[in-house]
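note to self: the first set is below, dont mix up w the second
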Amino acid sequence: MTEPELSERDLPSAEDMENELGGRIERDIIQLHPIPDAEWRTREKLFLVDSPLRQEIAESIGRYFKRETPYDFPPYSAGDESSETPVYLIRTTRVGAVVAIAAGALGMRRVQGEWILKWIWIHPWERGQLGDGPEQTANLVFRTLDELYGDFLIEGPISPAMRRLMEKRGYDSDRVVHVG
């Protein structure tokens, strides 16, 4: 049996292909973002979002967060950060480079004198490093947050992965708060 011949009108147009694949490709791609305005060869794990370039990166990472959660809006838009609502980029521990590479972001907020972790997103490649080792991405991030913010709270609802991380780090479940 032979295949029937296809004519030009049987094939999708370039526009149809773009419409079909464009959204899917955009949805499925997760970029690691260089942070070119960071000091070269720095060992820092968190970078304060304090420049237009870092704002753009944080917005992109916020969109990744939105894709994975039931929220209607990304958790961050450029200009949302302030001394009461700092946002940080998270440096990768898996990719070695001279320039810092962002593999996540997080947002904090001070409410009635208490610091609350509002949101955090870590690249899936880095999440596999949620083990007990001291150099695991999540451990480095949370150790830094402990140093900066003491016994900070964590806004719920939280994911099962966050619950496991809290248990591994010895955080009490009463650290989870629901802010209206």
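second set (the one i keep forgetting abt)
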Amino acid sequence: MSWPVLFLGVTVNVVAVLMSVALVCFARAATNAIGRRPGFAAWLNRAVSAIGSSVMPPKDMPTKCPAQAEPPSLDGGCACGAIRYRMLDLPMFVHCCHCTRCQRETGGPFAHHAMIEFTRFKILQGEPDFVLVPTDSGGKHWVARCPSCRTAMWNEHGTRRAVTRYVRVGTLDTPDALPPQAHIYTRSKQSWLVLAAEIPAYRAYYDAAKAWPEASLARFRLAKAARAAEPGGATRRTAAKSRT
């Protein structure tokens, strides 16, 4: 390497270090000046704006901060495509249920449910049939099925006007987007199935007040209040309780 090239490289590095030191000193001086003279802050803002305008043409300068990202939409539907639905937000909670009833209903080792409030769930296309199914607890729930291919897409527990939709994650277009946050009724889990140790597992059901994130509990309370505020909501809730 020739000495002029070496000298040039050293000079560039020295200048860069000196500029960094100068910027630090300027920042400290500016901070002190702002503390002593409030009017200096406005002058500094004008100066920075002027420098920025000289570097970047006004038409290319951002006029505002980027908007907050919209919640992701999760679309799904039946096997034949007649029914399409959309979750307008991430679910409040996702769990896998290993009870024998869910195994029988799904024909698999467990049911994979994403719980979304009715206010954040929308049917985009078609009209499902609702099939009344008994539960081991003596209650009942309705399963939304396609009238053509009979795919089961979500459940509504206790009443057709339930606050929560239990969406069957396998019917989403991107089912891998919603891994479980808990496993329930593991006392009847298939013996060959090994669960990930880092995911909470419960022999029966969990206490949602303890297992769910606080933000999800708040969402549920808002949706419950919205359902109750609907015309005749209190009357229908009482009737639904008497039926179950």
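remember for set 2: Residues 8-59 form one domain.
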